Amino acid sequence: MCKMLIDVHAHYEDTDMDAVCKKAENAGVRKIINAATNHETSVKCLEISRIYSNVYCVLGVHPEYAYEPDMTEFITEAARTCSKVVGIGETGLDYQYLPKDDPEECARIKEAQKNNFISHIKLSEKLGLPLVVHDRDAHEDTLSLLRDNVSGNTESVLHCYSGSAESVRDLAALNFSFSVGGVLTFKNARRLVEAVRAMPKERILLETDSPYLTPEPFRGRPNDSSFMVYTAHRLAEILGMTYDDICRITTENAMRIFSRMH
Ligand SMILES: [Zn+2]
Questions:
Q1: Terminal CA-to-CA distance of the chain, rounded, Å?
Q2: Whole-angstrom Cα distance, residue 94 to residue 134?
Q3: 11 CA to centre of ligand 1 in angstroms
Q4: Structurally, how many domains does the chain consist of?
Q5: What is the 212 CA–ligand 1 centroid distance (Å)?
Q6: Distance between CA 123 and CA 131 in Å, rounded?
């Protein structure tokens, strides 16, 4: 298994998947996990994973859609009937666009996100499937909510990690791993570089978050899984490892955590 990479987090919905898969395959990105964000995208991700043998999916409700109807039953049934469902998510907390001048609305949104997040944590533990967590501008609440609700029995993932090196240790203690995206290649990624150095090797994964966060030197263009090689090269440089080592380690980690991909 040499020079193989796995993109553990992308958003392909109305994308030309033939083109994406071909490009990815040529770049050595052999498996892709498509992340749903609500009911509509869960249906699409499920459909795509049924058609494309190397594309898997995680199903859940992103904090942005926290007010949408509960999807517990849908996800449970999908996970039972389709082995391509490899995890629960993405879900979590996102405080970036909170209406800061309206404290009551702020509190309502936070409460809805929290309830949505907790129901996904419970489902992940019940089904024994990894949880894929989104945390934007909500590091403190994310950590405390996970501390209060996670048993640590199920290995899970913080996607597009943007927290501190210190939080890496706290989250690793809760059995979390960290997927790192194109941001790692940006010039201002000092905090992330420090965090990556603090990550235990068995807890590092790679992702694209396509079509967002395209790595340098293509920053600003739409992302696709093939561009992950640039992030992998930067990771190798930061950790003082070879590109082959990065391929091997991150692939092993992804296959262990998202064990349904075997
Ligand atoms: Zn995402």
A1: 13
A2: 7
A3: 6
A4: 1
A5: 9
A6: 9
Q: Tell me the CA–centroid distance for residue 59 and ligand 1, in Å.
A: 11
Q: CATH no. for residue 247?
A: 3.20.20.140
Structure tokens given for 97? 């666009």
* Residue with tokens 């070879």, as numbered in its chain: 242
> From the CA of 103, how far away is ligand 1's center (Å)?
27
> What is the Cα–Cα distance from 254 to 249, expressed in whole angstroms?
9
Ligand 1 mean position to 159 CA, how many Å? 7
pLDDT in tens, 117-129: 999 999 999 999 9
* pLDDT at position 1: 43
Domain hosting 19: range is: 5-261
Ligand 1 centre to CA of 33 (Å) is 11
- CA-CA distance, 189 to 215, in Å (whole number)? 11
pLDDT tens track for 8-62: 999 999 999 999 999 999 999 999 999 999 999 999 999 999 999 999 999 999 9
Taking 3-state DSSP, the helix, strand and coil percentages for the chain, each rounded to the nearest 5, stand at 50, 20, 35
Cα of 160 to ligand 1 centre, how many Å? 8
What is the arithmetic mean of pLDDT over 222-238?
98
CA of 23 to the centre of ligand 1 (A): 20
